[in-house]
């Protein structure tokens, strides 16, 4: 049991912190606001109001790597509390990209809008312990309405899919667009290259080997096999709808589809070609293909042109589902259990990360932010488990991964970057436990799984039947 002296010291520290908070939070707000305003004013009057609310409530304190902490944050006892809150806050929400968008007038990240909406709606930020010390913080009804109105405006400005039913314009999830702009001539070449094993050193592996269009855009292996039976480091993500991701690969090392297409051919574990010159040499030895290629790319075969063609093909790999029809206004496209699953998907917090038309792919998140996933997994950590840190070399990005899109998820087992879970229901339970810190009932797991099954879509090739691969996915009834 704690001694009376320790109790009194603790209470004294809390009271002192409270008094410091009355003046300290004002100092903190003024310092942060002055720094941001000096750099550049907010992009609009609405952005200024939003930034003022975030500053006034000291959201920087726990959710920014650039926070300027007040002097009292270094006091014994307060320092430990501050470090705990900052670590937890940055696990869930890094505010800096949103603040940059407010300053520059650029699109705020979709996941940031969803996270902000959730905490405003549930009135969970700032947390109660923070408010007890920083007595001037807390969102009043006017603040809440200002933030929710701005979120709705930004979604409709940047992210709404044309043709969505009015009732879903402000939803964090959106229907797929019918098409993405692409060049049909490049698409035809890209389709051939996607299935061409000559991109690998021994002519044994093509892009389709790991991303089969007949099995959900994946190979259904825990980790993929490369040339000579080499085992890759992560589970292969689906190629379907990948054009909608904000970055490619689990660790985001490719900024575009074209960048991603250039990775596997030269990866020594995957396709293991030694250079683009080696690949170009083999393709140029095929006169018919080389002639067809130069008609589309006058400068001929090259690494950039090959990857550009593959990326153009991948833009066509969209798989509209019954869920899209429902979001576009067909109220009979989903049954009652699937609709309940979608409502749960939003209310329990899944839609705070799995956002947009691809239900993911728009942010990086900590794997195990609400619990130690890797300790529970039990297997030794691998280099791949470092996630985003392997790209940024920032320890704060350790075990952060791109949120996977959930379309066709019923077809793409095993799940997660490590392929450690083979059952979709189990994946739902683990995500609730380790990402949201909640335990789902069997009935809720059933509903969520039913909703996820409604995301299985249909791939409709844009090429002629003679040149296109067979449709990969089965239409839902």
UniProtKB/TrEMBL annotation:
Highest taxon of the lineage: Bacteria
GO molecular function: cytochrome-c peroxidase activity; electron transfer activity; heme binding; metal ion binding
Domain called Cytochrome c: residue spans: 185-317, 336-456
Pfam family, one: Haem_bd
Location relative to the cell: Cell envelope
PROSITE patterns: CYTC (PS51007)
InterPro entries: Cyt_c-like_dom (IPR009056), Cyt_c-like_dom_sf (IPR036909), Cytochrome_c_Peroxidase/MauG (IPR051395), Di-haem_cyt_c_peroxidsae (IPR004852), Haem-bd (IPR025992)
Gene3D superfamilies linked: Cytochrome c-like domain
PANTHER family in the record: CYTOCHROME C PEROXIDASE-RELATED
Protein name: C-type cytochrome
């Amino acid at each position: 049991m704690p001694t009376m002296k320790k109790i009194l010291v603790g209470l004294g520290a809390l009271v002192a912190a409270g008094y410091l908070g009355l003046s300290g939070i004002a100092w903190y707000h003024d310092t942060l606001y002055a720094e941001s305003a000096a750099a550049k004013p907010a992009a609009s009057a609405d952005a200024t109001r939003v930034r003022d609310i975030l500053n006034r409530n000291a959201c920087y304190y726990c959710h920014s790597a650039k926070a300027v902490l007040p002097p009292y944050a270094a006091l014994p006892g307060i320092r430990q509390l501050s470090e705990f809150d900052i670590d937890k806050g940055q696990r869930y929400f890094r505010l800096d990209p949103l603040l940059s968008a407010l300053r520059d007038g650029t699109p705020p990240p979709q996941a940031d809008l969803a996270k902000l909406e959730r905490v405003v709606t549930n009135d969970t930020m700032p947390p109660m312990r923070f408010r007890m010390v920083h007595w001037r913080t807390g969102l009043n009804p006017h603040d809440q309405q200002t933030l929710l109105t701005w979120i709705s405006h930004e979604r409709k400005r940047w992210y709404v899919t044309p043709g969505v039913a009015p009732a879903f314009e402000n939803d964090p999830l959106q229907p797929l667009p019918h098409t993405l702009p692409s060049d049909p001539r490049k698409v035809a070449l890209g389709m051939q290259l996607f299935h061409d094993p000559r991109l690998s050193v021994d002519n044994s592996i093509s892009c389709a080997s790991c991303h089969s269009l007949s099995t959900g855009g994946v190979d259904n292996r825990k980790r993929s096999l490369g040339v000579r039976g080499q085992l890759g480091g992560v589970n292969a993500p689906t190629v379907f709808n990948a054009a909608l991701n904000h970055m490619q690969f689990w660790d985001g090392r490719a900024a575009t589809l074209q960048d991603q297409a250039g990775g596997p051919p030269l990866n020594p574990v995957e396709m293991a070609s030694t250079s683009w010159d080696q690949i170009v040499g083999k393709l140029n030895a095929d006169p018919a293909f080389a002639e067809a290629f130069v008609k589309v790319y006058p400068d001929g075969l090259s690494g950039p042109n090959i990857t550009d063609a593959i990326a153009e093909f991948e833009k066509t790999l969209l798989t509209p589902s019954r869920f899209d029809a429902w979001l576009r206004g067909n109220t009979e496209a989903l049954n009652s259990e699937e609709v309940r699953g979608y409502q749960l998907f939003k209310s329990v917090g899944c839609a705070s990360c799995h956002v947009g038309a691809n239900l993911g792919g728009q942010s990086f998140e900590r794997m195990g932010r609400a619990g130690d996933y890797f300790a529970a997994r039990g297997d030794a950590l691998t280099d791949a488990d470092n996630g985003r840190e392997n790209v940024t070399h920032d320890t704060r990005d350790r075990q952060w991964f791109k949120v996977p899109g959930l379309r066709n998820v019923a077809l793409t087992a095993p799940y997660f970057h490590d392929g450690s879970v083979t059952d979709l229901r189990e994946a739902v339970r683990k995500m609730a436990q380790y990402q949201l810190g909640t335990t789902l009932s069997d009935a809720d797991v059933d509903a969520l799984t039913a909703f996820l099954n409604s995301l299985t879509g249909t791939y409709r090739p844009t090429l002629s039947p003679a040149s296109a691969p067979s449709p990969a996915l089965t239409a839902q009834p």
